[in-house]
Design brief:
3-stranded antiparallel sheet; 186 residues; alpha+beta; 5-stranded antiparallel sheet; 5 helices; Ribosomal Protein S5, domain 2
């Protein structure tokens, strides 16, 4: 599985219709909503905003798409197929269409939406997906620097920390590293 580290964008004109696409990492449906609202706010006069996303949850991968008023299966589904074909998760692609007055037909629409999404994904930086896990632990003050260095080496991060008689830390790190990490700091 793969995900996006850096967003990508693309545009193309097909028979006078202009298509703009953006790809971004979105880990929740709330992030997808924010991403799509930002696109819609910048392109209020666009005819359509079709999208697709795949998000990994505890229950599995959730795929969703919207044709945004285009004929069924001609906009969102081709975008989703680009995500599935590249085995991308926690990724959303939104494609805006400014109608140019020429009907593209169902095949033309599918190629236009899917092709523009493909271009936006090609412009993005795609990396292997690493499943992360959140852990809570309590450590002594003198071990905080060691914990921070270890997390950096493991590509993890501190999400939250509170101080009292000890340091209470919430961290995120790759699942494959969590057992060794916990045995070291427990």
């Amino acid at each position: 599985m793969f995900t996006i580290e850096k967003s990508g964008a693309a545009e193309q004109t097909i028979n006078k219709s202009r298509f703009f696409a953006w790809s971004a990492q979105c880990e929740t449906e709330q992030q997808v909503g924010s991403f799509l609202r930002a696109i819609a706010a910048q392109h209020q006069s666009a005819s359509h905003l079709a999208y697709a996303f795949r998000i990994k949850t505890e229950d599995g991968i959730i795929p969703r798409f919207s044709d945004a008023g285009e004929p069924s299966g001609t906009a969102g589904k081709p975008i989703l197929q680009m995500l599935e074909g590249r085995d991308l998760i926690n990724v959303c692609v939104g494609v805006i269409r400014y109608y140019g007055g020429v009907n593209l037909g169902t095949g033309g629409l599918a190629r236009a939406y899917g092709g523009t999404a493909k271009m936006a994904l090609k412009a993005a930086k795609i990396i292997p997906f690493v499943e992360m896990q959140e852990l809570k632990l309590t450590i002594q003050y003198n071990r905080l620097d060691e914990l921070t260095r270890t997390l950096t080496q493991l590509k993890g991060k501190i999400l939250d920390k509170t101080f009292d008689s000890a340091v209470h830390v919430k961290v995120s790190l790759p699942v494959i590293e969590s057992n060794a990490f916990m045995s070291r700091f427990n």
